[in-house]
Amino acid sequence: MVEAVRIVAGCSDYPLHLGVTEAGPLRQSLVKSSAGIGSLLLDGIGDTIRYSISGDPGLEVDAAWTLLAGLDLRRRGAQIVSCPTCGRCEVPDILSLVAQLENRLSEIVKPVTVAMMGCVVNGVGEGTAADVGIACGHDQGVLFVRGEPVRNVEPSAFIDTLIAEANKL
Ligand code: SF4
To answer: Which atom of ligand 1 is least distant from the CA of 88?
Structure first.
């Protein structure tokens, strides 16, 4: 698909639709479609896209928006910057916190970047770069809003605080 579209793009000005057809069930389609569609979009090729998933059609729309937002081609909804965990992580349930954050932020359509980071090593940089972010330390986290440290937050209030601050922006 990628090779064919590149050839057509090189010899015509027609609008081009991108999609990896019959890409399979969710996990396989997400990986294959993102690689194929994403590589072309990054080169400025493509006018419409479709994820082809053997599953809920709504997931195709979600995946397309997520790719466009991830490539910074369209901004809609929340982008989450989150700790993938390592030995420095100060919060035992960071993965559950990130899952809660994703669930709660799914209702927000305005473009906002929210960071939930597990330590101060990468957390300060990512928290500062996001619109709203928390960098966890021991037993508390530092809240950043638009690049500035605002206050310390208790772990039990991390998610509510991030949602409230994101809604205020
Ligand atoms: S944010 Fe901190 S704890 Fe999480 S992966 Fe990065 S360095 Fe490790």
So the answer is: 3
Q: What is the mean pLDDT of residues 46-58?
A: 96
pLDDT of residue 75: 85
pLDDT category at 167 given cuts 50, 70, 90 is very high
For residue 144, the model assigns a pLDDT of: 97
pTM of the model: 0.86
Pocket test for ligand 1, best of 80, 86, 124 (most atoms within 8 A of CB): 86
Q: What is the mean pLDDT of residues 153-164?
A: 95
3-state secondary structure of 47: coil
CB 118 within 8 A of CB 88: yes
Answer whether CATH 3.30.413.10 is correct for domain 78-168.
yes
Listed by start position, the domains of the chain span: 2-70, 78-168
- Please state the φ and ψ torsions of residue 45, each to the nearest 5 degrees: -105, 135
91 Cβ closer than 6 Å to some ligand 1 atom: no
